[in-house]
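Sample pair:
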Amino acid sequence: MPAFPKGFIATTLSLAAFLMATPAWGDAREAVAQARALMEAHQSGRAYSLLAPLEGANAGNVEFDYWLGAAALDAGYLDQALTALERVLAKEAGFHAARLELGRAYLRMGSLDLAEQEFQVLLARAPDAPMRTLMQQYLDEIARLRARQRYAWGGYLEANGGRDTNLSSTTRDFPGAVYSSFGLPGVEPTGNAIRRADNFLGAAAGADLAWKVSEESVAFALADVRWRGYREFHDYDSTMGDAIVGYQDRGGAFTWTVTGFVQGFRENGGAIATVEGTRIKYDSDAAGVGVEIRRPFAAQWQLAMGLQLAGIRYPTNPGQDVRNFTLSAAAEWRPAWFNDGAFVGKAFYGEDKARQPLNDFTDTTASRHTYGLRAAAVSERQGRFSWQGALSWTRRVDDDPFARALLVEKGRDDLFEGYLQLSWRVAEGWSLSPYASYTYNRSNIPVYAFRKAEGGLALRREFR
């Protein structure tokens, strides 16, 4: 790809003969002068943060809108850049520097037809050979992007290892918990009821494919498989696979995404023997569909609403089979000072409706409802390093009385989770990621209360 100008300074120097004079325009002059100085110092994020709060009072002023659009483009706020630059050209169609910035914005958003249109206009009006060459370079790059961006694929391989302090999420005092939950004294833990810690090794692989249907829509598919094996307790060795297909489209200010998914989980052993002589394992299968609608809100915010419908099946324990629906609402904030990172907050509510009673001897079911909150922060890669972290709280409430304990009528759990991962890009396509997580389930049924921590290190190779 040719070395195109990326900032306003290079653009202005290249198009000095193109610029049109603009009239004096009032109270925001000092802020624009400061924004220009910040951009010259390569601090476009600060320049945008300075001008964005003044947009309501100064939108429609050609010079203000131009600088706001240029700062927004360089800082990565593409929707805001489009709005400001389009206002400039609506008033002064011959403001060619603004047209070039608008073409660059369309190009970064992947709107190749619109970008081509702007560069064709500039090519026809270019006053000299260097400018015509520059515009032709942009048009040639669009042709190359069209050839290779209709389809895109990627994949990864990963090796990891670490330690899990509570393999089966077991309560610390099992005999006391059984007595409090079921009134049975002196029950000694066996099998999964024994609290265990162990080191593990893992491996994962995945692939994704995207097909650009049009300028505003894309179809995609991705799949991965993950394996974990423990050093001592091989009953807990497991394999999990996922596959997702989806379609995303953009109409006006809204982006909507529809997905379908399947998931399977298999554990090596650790089955529980029942009085009927069957052996219950924790294997599960799930399938479902989801839809999300997303819309920008203000300069640095996006809002999203989601709905998911799914079925979850447990092959050896059909009493736990459920149909699920989950509603969610999320907000994403990308403050300029976070260097294009994001904060995400999400609230959700779900219901799991059991497909049959827990066993042949009761009408009680595993139906429950859940709700909760999740907060996450994700940094964009700055050089070789990036990070992400999350905190969440989920409350589960049983719908049927005495569904999980003889002495507790209405089961209620509060699950608290924390996660932190750092990423170090050690070479092109290679990254090393240490991570740690902590889980605490507080339950009014003591046998389900537990704490666990996990930490590890992952080596990942990505292919694009």
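The domain at 151-463 is CATH 2.40.160.40 (Porin).
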